[in-house]
Amino acid sequence: MPVLKTYVLGMAVAHLLWLYFFTTGHLLRPKAFEQSRCFSITDLVTTSVAGMAVAGFCLLLLGFAHLLNRPGILLALVFEGLLFLWLKGENWLSYSFWQKICRRFVGAWTVPALFIYLLFLVLAVPAVLPPTFSDSVSYHLAYAVDWANAGRIYVDPFLRFPYYANNFLLFYSALFVLKLGSYCHFLNWLCGLLTCLGVLAFFTPVENPFREGTSTWKLSRPQHFLIPLCVALSPAFLRYLNVAYIDVPIGLFLLVPILCAYRSSSGQPFERELVVSAAFCVGMKLTLIGHLPFLLCSLLFATARRLPRRQIAVLCLLLVSLSLPWYLRNLFGAHDPTPPVFNLLF
Fold first, then answer.
1. What is the mean pLDDT of residues 102-120?
2. Which residues, other chains included, contact 294 with Cβ-Cβ below 8 Å and sequence gap of 6+?
3. Cα 298 from chain centroid (whole Å)
4. Cα(188)–Cα(13) distance, rounded to whole angstroms?
5. How far apart are CA 183 and CA 10, in angstroms?
6. Residue 165: pLDDT above 80?
7. Confidence grade of residue 223 (pLDDT, cut at 50, 70, 90)
């Protein structure tokens, strides 16, 4: 029974986090665009991941401001509610607000997406196991616990890779702050689910919003089931799905900017989601700074024909700026932005 209880509570935590990320992602969506069309599986994935990135940057700010604690997280939630009121004119505490959020969340699902979700409910069973792998115990969760106990981000010279880019570990730290550290594996499970839904979104045709009678529950083609299954059931994916490694989350945050660029080519405005998810990705691991030129090219591909040059330049500058906090911290703290690569030069 303790295993079943852990599974049920872990799934509850994962779904509450998903709802929060999905809600936060609405801050980035143009209001006119929201009202002009129904939510699709692409919207579900990009909005959820963009919301996760925004929440991660908020935790990063709290960590550097020595506010990585319960009062700090509560303050961030209140501030987010004020942002909804200011930017969207919507009350985060009203019933109509959550009714709209839930309607969009449920309305985005298709038959293949539901099939993938049911499969992942089974694949989540190993997430109840305690962390035993080397990186989880000696580095990822260790740093998260240190930051949660200290209420801030700091360098522990006795842990592996003291100067690193650790965006995703802030979610683990927040879970420990909220006394939910036992369910860190379920956050990785959520990233795996969103990854497969993102793969599905590539092969889901964009529906005409002016066509009446179109149902998202119509029968789909075989590839809508088979291609995400190839990802979900691959040995490498299963190996890292339910452990406190960041390989699956990195894959998700590399996938979503490409998905945003791909869908933006058909006239859908996903450049904001692309910027925040790409910038968050660069801050997840030191070596991902090498992907920054590719992500900038993806942004240019998505916006070159739709936006004025000045706005494109602002988006590129924002992407680069949000990508650099950890590297600037390392430059000032260790005189090396990506240690130990440039130790001989600085």
1. 92
2. none
3. 18
4. 12
5. 5
6. yes
7. confident
Whether the upstream peptide bond of residue 340 has omega within 30° of 0, thus cis, is yes
Question: What values do phi and psi take at 159, rounded to 5?
Answer: -100, 160
Q: Distance (Å, rounded) from C-alpha 98 to C-alpha 168?
A: 27
pLDDT at residue 81, as a whole number: 93
Amino acid present at 18: W
Q: Quote the mean pLDDT of the chain.
A: 87
| Amino acid at residue number 344 | L
Encoding tokens for residue 338?
A: 């990506």
Could you give the CA distance from residue 322 to residue 281 in angstroms, rounded to a whole number?
10
Question: Measuring CA to CA, which residue among 298, 306, 305 is closest to residue 261?
Answer: 298
pLDDT tens string 234-280: 999 999 998 888 999 999 999 999 999 998 877 788 999 999 999 99
Q: Is 202 helix (H, G, I), strand (E, B) or coil?
A: helix
Q: How many domains does the chain have?
A: 1
Model pTM greater than 0.90? Answer: yes
Q: Which one-letter amino acid corresponds to residue 138?
A: S
- The answer to whether the beta carbons of residues 75 and 67 sit under 8 Å apart is yes
Q: How far apart are CA 250 and CA 310, in angstroms?
A: 30
**Is 346 a domain residue?**
no
Buried b (16+ CB within 10 A) or exposed e, 252-263: bbbbbbbbbbbb
Band (pLDDT 50/70/90 cuts) for residue 314 is: very high
What is the distance between the alpha carbons of residues 8 and 127, in angstroms, rounded to a whole number? 11
pLDDT confidence of residue 156: 83
**Has residue 120 been placed in a domain?**
yes
- Which residues 6+ apart lie within 8 Å of 277 measured at CB? 46, 49, 50, 53, 253, 256, 257, 260
Q: What integer pLDDT is reported at residue 209 of this predicted model?
A: 45
Residue 217 has pLDDT above 50, yes or no: no
Look at residue 194 and tell me if it is in a domain.
Answer: yes
Question: Which stretches within 84-168 are classed as H helix?
Answer: 95-107, 111-123, 134-135, 141-150
